[in-house]
What we know:
With 112 residues, this protein is mainly β. 0% of the residues lie in helices and 53% in strands.
Amino acid sequence: QVQLVESGGGLVQVGGSLRLSCVASGQTYTSLVMAWFRQAPGKEREFVASISGIGNAPDYADSVKGRFTCSRDNAKNAMYLQMDSLRSEDTAVYYCHYAGIWGQGTQVTVSS
Length: 112
């Protein structure tokens, strides 16, 4: 069984940066895609970024392209999300998703 733990959220000003981490434990498969989603208050959960297990090819939502960078370290069963040039609309709970499992989420708040 897989468990996911996210960390790195916090409060940052507009234009600032944060780096989120997601570490998987349990029965992991490096071939599986890992992904980030987010959910803002009153909105549905939405895709942010993903990264393949083979080749580590990232994919991004249009709203974060050029500002966010998703990376992965298979040796550590970890995925990262470097978030730069943050905007107030990036405020949300960010969730890691892997092998059909959701992490508990980490709050990101961008203040203006």
